[in-house]
Amino acid sequence: MNWKNSNLSSMREAFADTIFDLAKDDSDLYVVSVGLRPSILMDKFALRYKTRFIEVGVAENNAAGVSAGLAKSGKNVFLCTYACFSPGINLATIKQSICENNLPVKIIGFHGGLLTGELGSSHQMLEDIALMRSLPTMEVFAPLDSIETIKMTRVLAKSNRSTYMRLVRPDTPSCYPPKKGFTIGQSQILQTGKDVTVLGYGPILTQAIGLKPSLEIINISSIKPLDEKTILKSIKKTGRCLVIEDHQQIGGLGEAVATLILKSGLKCKFAQIGVDNQFGRSSHDPLDLYRLYGLSTTDIITKINYLISKK
Fold it and tell me: What pLDDT score does 71 carry?
């Protein structure tokens, strides 16, 4: 999919508008912010729901503690900031105050992955999925685009589990099937095929749509819990699996799927595309970083051809 010729929209805007709408009918819905209200597009919410917008400032550990306290008192809490700060800085407080008490705080990590672009290594969170999926009781999600962001946010707002949802910074292609819903623990087959199973989450997955040969593309937006049945059924059919993600290869979806395949005893050809044990760097065009780190459409095609060539 060519992003320049696609219908682009903002995950951040979709999330902010959805939370604002949900708050109309849920008087217990609170947003906890960590000094980034304009960037996460929460100005409208803060102005309309002044007593339900908690600004803690640059104090990430305190934000997690406040969120836990609000959730313990029965509030429906969304902790919103950049992923590099939450869980990047406050992981211990998330573990001790939220997860160990099994509290339904929804942690929204903005600016995930290399798509953060010009903000550079300090803000390009490439380890958040690994950190959060390792925490007991924590569920982990990453929507494909703005359409799924809306559907996912509405579902997670009703969840009674500790939750992490990853969003990206720039506008990205909208290709989630509008008639499809979102269900925790389920994936969505975006394209059926017979030669290679392609698994991923977030906007990077859209780069595989329409490529040759016959690809079965599955959106793994529910990373934990994982839709094991759909994944294994597809790999059994194709015999080949490629996992692509804008994240470190270590600890990400690729490792989760590889572990699943090994445990199942299923034989297949496997490959993954992700950041290979490196930090990010700054670029005005985030897609230049995809080319630099081997995450571009060209790199996906190369990996697919490699899997096809293996006997």
Answer: 98
Is residue 274 within 8 A of residue 289, CB to CB? The reply is no
Low-confidence ranges of the chain (pLDDT < 50): none
Question: Which neighbouring-strand residues pair with 15?
Answer: none
pLDDT value at residue 7: 87
Distance CA 166, CA 164 (A): 7
8 A C-beta contact, residue 200 and residue 253: yes
- The DSSP result for 273-300, as a single string, is EEE-S------SSHHHHHHHTT-SHHHH
Q: Measuring CA to CA, which residue among 204, 106, 201 is closest to residue 155? A: 106
CB 122 within 8 A of CB 152: no
Calculate helix-pair angle for 11-25, 146-156, nearest 10 degrees. 30
- Encode pLDDT of 240-296 as tens digits: 999 999 999 999 999 999 999 999 999 999 999 999 999 999 999 999 999 999 999
Secondary structure string (H, E, C) spanning 24-76: HHCCCEEEEECCCCCCCCCHHHHHHCHHHEEECCCCHHHHHHHHHHHHHCCCE
What is the distance, to the nearest Å, from the Cα of residue 260 to the centroid of all Cα atoms in its chain? 20
Please tell me the distance from the alpha carbon of residue 172 to that of residue 10, in angstroms, as a whole number: 6
Q: What is the rounded CA–CA span in Å between residue 310 and residue 32?
A: 50
**DSSP annotation string for 167-196:** --SS-EE--S-TT----TT--EEEE--SSE
Domains along the chain with CATH numbers: 3-173 (3.40.50.970), 188-309 (3.40.50.920)
pLDDT value, residue 225: 98
In the chain, % helix, strand, coil (3-state, to 5) comes to 40, 20, 40
Residue with tokens 């979806």: 253
